[in-house]
Amino acid sequence: MISVDHLSLSFGGFYLFREISFLINSHDKIGLVGRNGAGKTTLLKVFMGLQQPDEGKMVVPPGTRLGYLPQQMVIIDDKTLLDEAGSAFDEIVLLETEIKTLNSEISSRTDYNSEIYLDLIDQLSDKTERFHLLEGSNREQKIEQVLTGLGFTRRDFSRHTREFSGGWRMRIELAKILLKSPDVIMLDEPTNHLDIDSIQWLEEFLHNYHGAVLMISHDRVFLDQVTDRTVEISMGKIYDYRVPYSNYVALRKERREQQTAAYRNQQKLIADTREFIERFRYKPTKAVQVQSRIRMLEKLEIIEIDEEDNSAINIKFPPAPRSGSVVLEIRDLSMMYGSHRVLDHVDLTIHRGERVAFVGRNGEGKTTLSRIITGELHFEGHLKTGHNVKIGYFAQNQDELLDGNTTVRPQRHVVEVLAQDR
Fold first, then answer.
1. Which residues pair with 350 in a beta bridge?
2. Mean pLDDT on 205-233
3. With contact defined as beta carbons under 8 Å apart, do 24 and 2 qualify?
4. pTM recorded for the entire structure
5. Fold exhibited by the domain 326-401
6. What are the distances in angstroms from CA 116 to CA 122, 143, 320, 348?
7. Taking the domains of the chain in order of start, what are their residue ranges?
8. Residue-wise pLDDT tens digits, 335-381
9. Taking Cα atoms as reference points, which of 173, 170, 176 lies closest to residue 195?
10. Dist. CA 357–CA 345, nearest whole Å
11. Beta-ladder partners of 67
12. What is residue 136's DSSP assignment?
């Protein structure tokens, strides 16, 4: 369906891709994997025409429809949830209007054998066939199925989209892509804003999807459930495995072990051959054998071990101060938003060293309870943190809380000036 042919792309002299080639077939379910910075997101942008390669080309057959969900996007909020989801069917709405117009015009004519009449019949037939191909007659059912599958309730359908958080608005965009039924769905970390139930629903949807799927995800279980092919980007090269992620990991290890063994055997052969040549180079009785081995070395195709990206980020956190045996104690805690009771008489105790996960459907109060623990929200009941307990909180919308005008590097000169002033 889509072909990538000797595609190269560089940034500042560094090649992100170097002459990569592969095909996406009509029913492939592909997991695009590689380290952060390997070029996965950039490759999706190339597919969508948002990034141009330096060399090579990508061929998309005419009429192929692509659906793309980036990690971050600018979302316009001017409709209700139901209307926004319904915008995915703009083509169907247009077809309905055109079919209605054609039917009206055909019913008013009596020149049944004229070219104009026959042309109108052909147009009506083509547009009706296209309408049924897009399953236009049951779009309301599809909208409800996809929205509820992604975690929305029927009460949400009439809400304005600007009332939803950034994560929920990303779900709306995902719903629109799924409803459009493109030939190829391209998703960049689609599970980032989904809960467990929604992820399971999306797994089944994509696994049974009639078209191709190309996605980036760090969720290994999700990749295993959806994909049947894994394309790895590493050091500017493409490695294509016709298996799900877990099988790919095993095959990649096996491939490198085989390469390493073959490389070592060849290097030993080369060393032994050179030793023979140097030992008998000047002996007339061995001249034929020496020349034969020299020609063998000249024709030998040297085995290379694929480069492996071993770069890593090393972060060292200072040790936390030792806390009391009870880290957190909650008794009879309740929380309401207006008339809606989110948490009702909750009791919870967390001891030092425990690893606790809050799970549940969206809206059940997981984030609310987390924000109560950090002191961001008022509540009813009793909450007590233990002796010497310090809390670090990484919010779901942490990217929105960061100051986009600052850099990652600390402004050390500011610290130095303040120190001097003191």
1. 328
2. 94
3. yes
4. 0.73
5. Rossmann fold (3.40.50)
6. 10, 38, 82, 77
7. 262-299, 326-401
8. 998 888 889 999 999 999 999 999 887 778 888 999 999 999 999 99
9. 170
10. 19
11. 185
12. G
